[in-house]
Design brief:
It comes from Parapedobacter luteus. The chain has 382 residues and is α/β, with parallel strands linked by helices. It has eight helices and 19 strands. The structure holds flavin-adenine dinucleotide.
């Protein structure tokens, strides 16, 4: 596995240029993040003739392969995820766990990524955390916790896991119980004997509500009335949902949540929850108190835990100096699949907005690799 040693050999092998105080490793394209989106981009960069090191580098802050999947809760199995789409060139079902629905996603997907990296010789430099990217002398200076890189282009694939979103409610600081986010969840057993307020109307909220309500009492709160969608979520519905998010980012609006577009798929598990009486959705409370949550009419529910299943935002803080965001908080995206930052075509964001799914990340990786190589004139090797 490429680790400290591989990083060291990169230092030795890559042509370097001296900066005032530190070495800078010069490369064509810096891919930041090695989840589904970053690996797909890396596969296509390599396939189209770029060599690792001089042509492109893949940097990832995690110590092991797996993207954010390695951090997800153990009860998320291949049966309960929506679907893990194949990376280009190697079907997921060809790996050991690929066809076993009860296998934990946090084991199966990292294993798949590890095999994938090895199969295609996609060296990932890890753990390397990108702290900040800025422009210098018409190149990008990529500052990491392990040194500096200088690149002509950036493919950013840092996902959302690092940026959990918790809305602000009055009194949050007064609460004497525990406030957690989906990101912190491991097992329902941790909540036995506690009353848990679960906030959120997405797929993760429903899954955690299902598990926690089997071992303790819960209150389920959502901002909007959840819309359950009956019938299978076909390809057309998927394309329509992606098109809505794509239209938003092309206008420079924040991507928004996909569930707000697709609704929640009705399933036997949800039907069983309804029968158990745990789908008794409450509107959003207006205030958090020392011992619970309170609604505008004065009604209060005592709680030991507030579990915020309120989603994630794109992890883009390291790109802040590039000033990509518009006044609405979004980024105007262009290119074939809306992966290219319109105001700076040398930067692509994959796994962002319409490509924030395993299938979307795959396609985005390919589009970004092709368009960026063309734009930078790196296509000679094709
Ligand atoms: C709970 C949950 C369940 C999901 N279930 C499904 C599903 O069933 N099907 C589906 O298609 N999609 C699902 N998704 C969405 C899906 O996981 C992602 O959209 C998809 O895997 C693409 O991942 P990614 O490559 O964009 O990001 P990630 O998998 O998050 O990878 C990002 C990588 O970037 C690295 N990184 C982050 N910041 C830095 C930095 N500053 N420097 C260096 N490296 C950095 C991280 O270490 C990580 O390896 C789910 C998402 C969540 C949160």
């Amino acid at each position: 596995m490429p680790s400290a040693y591989a990083f060291l050999s990169l230092e030795m092998d890559t042509p370097t240029l001296q900066s005032a105080s530190r070495l800078v490793y010069k490369t064509g394209i810096a891919v930041i993040g090695a989840g589904q989106a970053g690996l797909s981009a890396a596969y296509h960069l390599k396939k189209q003739g770029l060599e690792i090191g001089r042509g492109f580098v893949v940097l990832d802050q995690s110590s092991h392969p797996g993207g954010a999947w390695q951090y997800r809760w153990p009860s998320l199995t291949l049966r309960t995820v929506n679907r893990i789409h194949d990376l280009p060139g190697l079907p997921f079902s060809d790996t050991v766990a690929g066809n076993q629905p009860e296998v934990q996603a946090n084991l199966a997907v990292p294993h798949y990524f590890e095999v994938y990296e090895k199969t295609f010789g996609l060296t990932v430099y890890r753990p390397v955390k990108v702290k900040v990217v800025c422009e210098r002398d018409s190149r990008f200076r990529v500052e990491t916790d392990r040194g500096f890189f200088s690149s002509q282009g950036i493919i950013n694939a840092t996902g959302t896991w690092e940026t959990p979103y918790v809305p602000v409610y009055p009194g949050a600081g007064l609460f004497e119980g525990v406030q957690l986010h989906t990101r912190d969840y491991q097992t329902a057993d941790a909540f036995v004997g506690k009353h848990v307020v679960i906030v959120g109307g997405g797929i993760s909220a429903i899954q955690l509500l299902d598990e926690i309500s089997r071992v303790t009492t819960t209150t389920w709160v959502t901002r909007k009335e959840p819309i359950f969608r009956s019938g299978p979520f076909g390809e057309k519905a998927g394309r329509d949902a992606v098109a809505i998010v794509e239209a938003r980012v092309r206008k420079g609006l924040p991507p928004g949540s996909v569930v707000s577009v697709t609704g929640l798929p009705w399933s036997p598990a949800i039907d069983a929850m309804r029968k158990r009486g745990v789908l008794d959705r409450q509107p959003m409370f207006s205030e958090i108190t020392a011992h619970g949550v309170r609604w505008p009419d004065g009604r209060e529910v005592m709680a030991d835990v507030i579990l915020w299943c309120t989603g994630f935002r794109s992890s883009l803080d390291h790109l802040m100096p590039l000033m990509l965001k518009e006044e609405h908080g979004g980024i105007v995206m262009g290119g074939r699949l809306a992966t290219m930052v319109a105001k700076n075509p040398r930067i692509h964001l994959v796994g962002y907005g319409p490509s924030a799914s395993t299938i979307g990340a795959n396609r985005a990786g390919r589009a970004a690799a092709t368009e960026l190589m063309d734009y930078l004139g790196l296509t000679h090797a094709r």
